[in-house]
Design brief:
The structure is a single chain. The chain is mainly β. It has a single domain, classed as Methylamine Dehydrogenase, Chain H (7 Propeller), CATH 2.130.10.10. The protein has no helices and 21 strands. The strands form five sheets. A five-stranded mixed sheet has the order 1-18-17-16-15, with no helix packed on it. It has a four-stranded antiparallel sheet with strand order 2-21-20-19, with no helix packed on it. It comes from Shinella granuli. InterPro entries: PQQ_rpt_dom, WD40/YVTN_repeat-like_dom_sf. This is Putative pyrroloquinoline-quinone binding quinoprotein.
């Protein structure tokens, strides 16, 4: 296992009216983040807020190339980002204890915070396909280049860690600065992770190690 200190490339925010950043995702151009009662789009190049959609947004956020997915209490809403309309709804596997959310390989992957688990579910039905065990509380989930990463936040300690998706073994750990929480995680598909900053109301871009 390798351990390294986080190389924070940029910090976005805090944003007007945003007290908490929950889920984070990336649509190839904009970073979307959940802030309790809105899902917001941010330009990662210049830091501008582009738009917001009014809807319950309590935890993880994901994007499948066409639709947004947003955890709202014990449900996951599928959203048309153009209109803001909820297209469909499925149950969340953690029954309200869900945290991170990402889309990969045709499935949704849902972090369950206190159980320290990541669930793969069917995005159409919510059916549970498999569960991966972690050894830390899960606050964000992402896949990039076949690698499974998740964020953690316990007390004043937070990190990003890469797991073996078959065994749950920790392969790499990126340690965040003391007092820096991770409340959502997404890759840009290249060399950046976008990390929600919880009650700091910020988003941090962290360099992905190669």
């Amino acid at each position: 296992m390798t351990t390294s200190k986080a190389d924070i490339l940029r910090e976005y925010g805090p944003f007007p009216g945003v007290e908490q950043v929950h889920g984070v995702t990336f649509d190839g151009k904009a970073v979307w983040f959940a802030s309790g009662d809105k899902v917001n789009a941010l330009d990662p190049d210049d830091g501008r807020m582009l738009r917001s959609i009014d809807l319950a947004a309590h935890a993880g956020t994901a994007y499948d190339g066409r639709h947004l997915f947003q955890i709202a209490e014990d449900r996951i809403h599928k959203i048309d980002p153009a209109s803001g309309a909820i297209v469909s709804t499925i149950p969340a596997p953690g029954k309200g204890g869900d945290s991170g959310l990402t889309w990969a390989e045709g499935s949704l992957w849902v972090g369950e915070y206190r159980s320290r688990q990541i669930h793969e579910i069917d995005p159409e039905t919510g059916a549970l396909l498999r569960t991966i065990e972690s050894n830390r509380m899960v606050t964000g989930v992402t896949w990039v280049d076949g690698e499974l990463w998740h964020g953690t936040w316990e007390g004043e300690e937070s990190d990003l860690r890469r797991l073996d998706p078959r065994t749950g073994a920790v392969l790499d750990t990126i340690v965040m600065p003391a007092g820096t929480g991770v409340s959502g995680l997404e890759s840009d598909g290249a060399d950046r992770f976008f990390c929600g900053g919880g009650n700091s109301g910020t988003i941090r871009a962290v360099r992905r190690p190669r």
